[in-house]
Amino acid sequence: MTQDGRRLRGLRSREAILEQAVGLASVEGLDGLSLGRLATATGTSKSGFFAHWRDKEQLQLDAVDWAGRQWAERVVAPAMKAPAGVRRLFALHEARLRFYGEAVLPGGCFFFTVQAEFDDRPGAVRDRVARAMREWQEFIRRQVAQAMALGELAESVDVAQLAYEIDALGEMVIIHSRLHDGPASLVHARRAVLQRLRALCPDPTLLPED
Amino acid sequence: MTQDGRRLRGLRSREAILEQAVGLASVEGLDGLSLGRLATATGTSKSGFFAHWRDKEQLQLDAVDWAGRQWAERVVAPAMKAPAGVRRLFALHEARLRFYGEAVLPGGCFFFTVQAEFDDRPGAVRDRVARAMREWQEFIRRQVAQAMALGELAESVDVAQLAYEIDALGEMVIIHSRLHDGPASLVHARRAVLQRLRALCPDPTLLPED
DNA sequence: TACATTAACGACCGATCGTTTGTATATCTG
DNA sequence: CAGATATACAAACGATCGGTCGTTAATGTA
Fold it and tell me: Which of A25, A72, A85, B137 is most buried, judging by how many CB atoms fall within 10 Å of its CB?
C-alpha cells in the first residue's frame, strides 16, 4: 500500500470532484446538481464518476462528509483557539460569519441549502445531514454549558434555548444576505449574539463592546 | 362577463392547481416540482397547464402570489386582531408558529423552501420572492416601530435589529422542527421572542409570562 | 344560429437525467 | 514478466424533463 501513482491520482481527483460538488451543491442543492454539469465543471466525463462511486447517492453522502470536514477546519478549529467560555462561544459565531462573508462556498452554506432540500425527503442523505447538524448543535450546547460551568453565563440560562438562538441567528444570515440586504445582515447577526451574551455574562468585559 | 360556466370552471381549476403547486413546492421547491408530477397530483394533463400559463415560470410566479395571499390570510390577518404594539408583534410571531405547527403546508413553509432554492439563481421568480420577503420584513419593522411609538419598547431598541431577530427565530423553526427535534423548536422559538420582548418592554404584563 | 374563444386532452418533440456497457490503458501485486 | 486492479472514457440506454401541436367539445358572443 505505497499509495502513489494510480492510487494517489484516484484520491486526488476524488477530492477535486467532491470539492466541486460541495461548491455547486451550496448553490443548487445536492439533487439539483446533475452529474452532467458536475462533469463539465470538473473537466471529466459523467461515466468516470462511477469508478469512484456506486451511484449518485454515494457521491452525495461523501459530499456531506467532505463539507463537514471543511466546516470543522474552517469554522470550528479557528474558534477553538479562543479561551473556553463565552469568548470561545462568540469566536465560534464570528468564525461562522467570516466563513459566510468570505464566500468560501459560492452558495454561502452547503448545509443550509441541503437541509432545506432534504428536510422533507426521507433517505440516507437526509439521515446523514441530520446527524451532522445534530452533532453541530450538540457542539454549540457543549460550549454554552462550559461557559456556564466557568461562571461566565448567568445560572438562569437555559442551555438548549441559548444554543438554539445562537445557531438560528447565524444560519439565517445566508438567506438574508443573499436575497436582500447583503452585508447588513452579517452586522445584525453579529450584534444580536454579542448583545445577548453580554447581557447574560457577569463579566461583559470578556466580550467586545460592539 | 357573467363569469360562469366555462370561465368559472377555468378559474376554479386554476386555483386548485395553484394550491397543489404551493403545497408540493413547500416540499420540493418550485423548480424541483415537475409539471408531470403536478399533473398527476391534480388529476389533469401536463398540456392542460399551457391553457392557463405560457410556461412553467408564469405558473411559478402565480404560485408565489398565491402563497403570499395565503400567508396574509392565515398569519397576518389573525394577528391584526390583537391590539397594536408588543401584543400584536407577539401575536404575529405566534400566528406564524401556529401556521407551521398545524402543518397547513406539507413542507411547512413555502417561502422558506423557495428562498433557499432561488437565493442564488437570478430571474423573475427570484425577484418576485425577494419582493414578497422584503414586504414581509418591512411589515415586521412597522410593527416594531409602532410598538416603540406606543412606548411599549425601550427607546434604545434598534428597529431593524429586533425585526431581524424575530424573523430569524421564527423562520428557523422550519429546519429544526422537520430535521430533528420536532415540536421542541416551536417552544424554543416562542420563548426566545417572548423573553426578548418582555425584557425590552417597560410593562411586561402586556405579554404572557411563559 | 353562426362564429370565436376557451378548457382540456393525447401524442409527440428534442434535451437532459442517472446509469450501464464495453474498451483502452496505466499501475499495482505476485 | 504476468495477471489482476483501478482510472477514465465514449457511446448508448430508458426515463423524464419542459414544451408544442392538433384536436375535441363546451361555452361565450354576435
Answer: A25
In B29-158, alpha helices (H): 35-42, 56-71, 77-79, 86-101, 110-118, 124-149
**Short-list A70, A68, A75, CA closest to A98:** A75
Q: Which 45-84 residues of chain A touch chain B by CB within 8 A?
A: none
Q: Which nucleotides of C are covered by protein (CB under 7 A)?
A: 5-12, 16-22, 26-29
Torsion of CA A62, A67, A70, A71, to 10 degrees: -140
Query: What gap in Å lies between CA A31 and CA A57, rounded to an integer?
Result: 9
Q: What is the pLDDT along chain A (210 residues), one digit of tens a residue?
A: 334 566 777 788 999 999 999 999 999 999 999 999 999 999 999 999 999 999 999 999 999 999 999 999 999 999 999 999 999 999 999 999 999 999 999 999 999 999 999 999 999 999 999 999 999 999 999 999 999 999 999 999 999 989 999 999 999 999 889 988 789 999 999 999 999 999 999 999 999 998
Domains of chain A with bracketed CATH? 57-206 (1.10.357.10)
Please answer yes or no on whether A161 and B191 come within 8 Å at the CB atom. yes
- Shortest distance between the Cα of A49 and any Cα of chain B, in A, equals 24
Per the structure, the residues numbered 67 to 126 in protein chain A that have their CB within 7 angstroms of any atom of strand C are none
What are the C-alpha distances in Å from B181 to residues A93, A130, B3, B170, B191? 22, 10, 49, 15, 16
Reading the block at residue B36, the C-alpha cell is 408531470
A70: exposed, middle or buried (Cβ count in 10 Å: 0-12, 13-18, 19+): middle
